TrEMBL record:
InterPro entries: Fe-S_Maturation_MIP18, FSCA_dom_sf, PaaD-like, Zn_ribbon_PaaD. This is PaaD zinc beta ribbon domain-containing protein. It comes from marine metagenome. Residues 80-120 form the PaaD zinc beta ribbon domain. PANTHER family: 1,2-PHENYLACETYL-COA EPOXIDASE, SUBUNIT D-RELATED, FE-S PROTEIN MATURATION AUXILIARY FACTOR YITW. Transmembrane segments: none annotated.
Length: 122
């Protein structure tokens, strides 16, 4: 998702700099735990994980691969032309500007009648 900003290695220690998608992002704890799990599963025990809020994260940092994974998970990726991730229809309506987290909005597809989240473009 482009939140890992920098990885440094110095004197047998790694420093990983991450930026949240939003201030107060509820996923940051899980993201840090996943980073720790991946480091330690590779035998890396000497590390620091730091958070940087500047510059602020933007959806421009998301790769096409990440956007495809969001769509595969049923979440419409950030875009000015929102389409249903289930049936690719553009016949959609906003249900709520906020979904399960502040970075997502809740939509409904009028073609397949399925609700879905849209990752807001920032």
């Amino acid at each position: 998702m482009g939140i890992i900003r920098e990885v440094q290695y110095d004197a047998n220690s790694f420093t990983i700099m991450i930026t949240p998608t939003y201030s107060g992002c509820p996923a940051m704890y899980l993201i840090k735990e996943e980073i720790i799990h991946n480091l330690e599963s590779q035998g890396i025990m000497n590390y620091q994980i730091e958070t940087s809020l500047a510059p602020p994260w933007t959806t421009d940092w998301m790769s096409d691969e990440v956007k495809a994974k969001l769509k595969d998970a049923g979440i419409a990726p950030p875009s000015n032309n929102i389409i249903c991730p289930q049936c690719d229809s553009s016949e959609i309506e906003v249900i709520s500007d906020f979904g399960s987290t502040a970075c997502k909005a809740l939509y409904k597809c009028n073609q397949c009648n399925e609700p879905f989240h849209h990752f807001k473009q920032i």
